Structures are given as structure tokens and as C-alpha cells.
Amino acid sequence: MKLWGGRFEKATDGLVDDFHSSISFDQRLFEQDITGSIAHATMLGEQGIIPAGDAEKIVEGLKGILRDAREGKIAWRMDAEDIHMNVETLLTERIGEAGKRLHTGRSRNDQVALDTRMYAKAACRETEAMLEELLETLLDTAQQHLHTIMPGYTHLQKAQPITLAHHLMAYVQMFLRDRNRFRQAFRAADVMVLGSGALAGTTYPLNRERVAELLDFSVISENSLDGVADRDYMLDYLAAASICMMHLSRFCEELILWNTNEFRFVEMDDAFATGSSIMPQKKNPDVAELIRGKTGRVFGHLMGLLTVMKGLPLAYNKDMQEDKEAFFDARDTLVKGLTVFTAMLKTVTFRRDVMERGASGGFTNATDCADYLVKKGVPFRDAHRVVGELVAHCLNEKKALLDLTLEELKQFHSAFEADVFDDLSMIACVEKRRIPGAPAPDMVQLAIDSAREKLKQ
Ligand code: ARG
Question: Is residue 132 part of a domain?
């Protein structure tokens, strides 16, 4: 018989049992569920809401179940609906009558919210740690490439020379922001909701602060309806996960592009590439592609849960059971993505020579050429036109700006002098960009130092 079977005259249809049961996926919450119950029972005993002896038996019984569950010794019962009823049923089987007092002053509605909040908090902390490892890897790599010149792009067209370190540091900024987003998601989840009951609190004198203290929550919720109806903390996690996956997918796309025969900026390690069953020459960047592809799943889960929550009347509705598979899959996808991405990044070889050669093609110093004329007193708009004409001339002659002689340059503007050649070298173009946030090596060094400081906080 069901734990809630008292008012029913018929057993549930088999189809319904199968349809509404969540134990197949919420068993992953056993740790949180049992830990939450231990705190609840401890508080019930301390408050004299249940006899102290029963509270002790419950706590001991739950600890035993937790041990067995950790060792994989428990076969969760599919007919017991969800993790909450599984644990309670098992407890009563093991310790008898006292077990029936565990659910005093509690509902599965506040229980499931508590469990998922605990799970979300752990997921946020875990993600932060993974982001920190990725950030360390990026910072170490950037440090080695302060002087590795590469072309910077807009519209995927060569634009201006930058350094690989500067490019990598752009991702450092993104992942630092991601870490902040997971910290915010943690704070959203860090609210203790037991005591909300089914929706309207409870008549028992629960000590909610005590439960919060036992379970390491910072605050207690302030409205019982919101306590059971809120899933913002999951949406915050999913939103943070989506943005983080979006960043990973952009990075993956660049590695895929840079790994092509056309670019050849990077060489993927054999251990992180795969072959083709038909084309013997192939070495494909499947890992990067798969991370890029899995980004779609995480976005989907964010949209999915937003849609589940949209228009739901207060307070709890069974629709909300749909939160868990979305949340778990998003978390698993993100964790796997971050793990394999960081491991892959550690093995990528950056080809300095190819990158530097790539930087000098495509007139990446054209802006600097205009800036040179400005330095000699020419207004920027005129300088822009002169260099445009120079570029058109070079395209006709199949030359780069620096291939022209001083005499040729002077035909376009008399302000050109011999110092122009040093001024337009790739190294000079990068080194002259020395304001905060720009790619000159000493500025990037400052950015690296500042990011390392932030990482410590
Ligand atoms: N398995 C349910 C869920 O995941 C637990 C809460 C059930 N509450 C209820 N009133 N049916 O949401």
C-alpha cells in the first residue's frame, strides 16, 4: 500500500505508477534526502515534538541507510514512487514504529525543495572548482605566449595583430564571470525551506534556524508558498551553465578552426582527436565538436524548465517534478564538458611560427599605418583614405605595406619617413598598444596578475 493510501479505494493503475514515479532519476538525491531527514528528526527530538528516544532511533536508522546507499547496497523500490518515500518506507521496515514519526511537520513538497537546494549548492561549488582549474591552465598558457603574435579577427577577417596571450585572456574574463554566476546561483540555493510544509507552514513548533544550522544553510525562507513553489535556484544554475557552455563552445569552435589545414594555428594531441573509418588521413577534433554540440542540450534544459514553470499557479504542482532530469543532465553535461575541455587544452600545441606568419598577411598593420600618419600631423580621416589607397595599390602589386619602398610610400603622402618601417612591424603594432586592457605584453602581464588575484578571492 502507498504511504498516502488511506483515502483511496482502488490501487493506482499500473500505467499511472509507471508514469508518475520519479525514483528512477531522483535516487541520485539519496545523500541530500537522508541528511535532510537526519537534521529534521534531530530538531523534532530537541523540540520535544517527537519523543527523544524515537528521534535517536530515526537518526541511527537513517545513518545506516545512508551507509548502505553509499555502498550501493540498496535496491530502490520502483513501486515506492520517489526517493522520499523509499527512504521513509525502508526506515520503518528497519526500525519499526519510530520510523512513522519522521514525516511529522514536513511534506514532500518542502522536502524535495530542500534536497534539490542542497544538490544545487554542491553542484555550484563543484563547477566553481572546475572553472578554477580551467582558469589556472589558461593563465599558465597565456604566461608562455605573451610574445606570440597572431592575427586578431573581426568578421573572421584578419583585423589587427594581437598576441595569443591576449586572446586566451579574453576567455579568462569569460570564465571568471562564469565563476561569479555560479556563486550567485549558490546564494540563490542557500535558503533552508523545511517548515514550509505542503504550502502553509505547519502547526508544530519547528525550530527552522536549527535545521538551517545543522544543514549549513545561511538563511531560512520567508514565505511558505514560495518555499515550495520556487525553482529559481535551478534556473540560475541552468542559466549559468548555459552561458558557460556558450563560452566553451566558442573556444571549441576556434580550436576546430585553428586545427584546420587552412589555419594550422594549433595541433591537437592524438589523445584528444579521432580518426575516420574510411579516410585514412583524417584526424578530427571530435572532442571540441562534441562539447560545441552538447551546448544545445544545456540551453534546451534551461528553456525546458522555464517552460515548465511558466504559468504554474502557486504553490507546488507535480509539473515541477520535471525539474530534476533537466537539472541533472545539464549538470552532468557541464561537468563532463569542463573536465574534458581542460584536459584537452593542456595538450594543445600552439604553432607560433604559423600564427606569426598569419599576422603579417592581410594588412593587419593598416590601422597602425594610418596612426603613423596621424603622429606626423595628418588628420585621422585623411590618413584612413591614404592608407586605403595604399592597400588598393598593394593588392594590385601583390605586396604587403612593408614591401613598399620609402619613395613609393611618399607618392601617397609626403609625411612618410624612414622610421615607418620599424613602426609597422608586427611586434611594434602590438607593443604600441599599451593602455589597460590592450595586447602589449606588459599590459597583458598586468591582466594576468589581476586575474590571478581574482582567482584567489
Ligand atoms: N517526486 C516529487 C517531485 O519530484 C516529490 C514531491 C511530491 N509531492 C507531491 N505533492 N506529489 O516533485
Answer: yes
Q: Which helix (H) or strand (E) holds 152?
A: strand 149-154
Q: How far apart are CA 376 and CA 417, in angstroms?
A: 9
Convert the pLDDT of each residue in 113-166 to its tens digit.
999 999 999 999 999 999 999 999 999 999 999 999 999 999 999 999 999 999
Known catalytic residues?
A: 155, 276
Measuring from atom 11 of ligand 1, which residue has the nearest CA?
318
Residue 413, Ramachandran bin (φ over 0: left; ψ between -120 and 50: alpha; else beta)? beta
Confirm whether pTM is higher than 0.70. yes
Q: Which three cell numbers stand for residue 186?
A: 549558490
Q: What is the CATH number of the domain that holds 380?
A: 1.10.40.30
Which residues neighbour 208 within 8 Å (Cβ) at sequence distance 6 or greater?
Answer: 192, 194, 195, 220
Q: Give the total number of structural domains in the chain.
A: 3
Q: Which atom of ligand 1 is nearest to the CA of 198?
A: 10
With contact defined as beta carbons under 8 Å apart, do 4 and 198 qualify?
A: no
Write out the three cell numbers for 108: 514532500
Q: Is residue 431 within 8 Å of 441, Cβ to Cβ?
A: yes
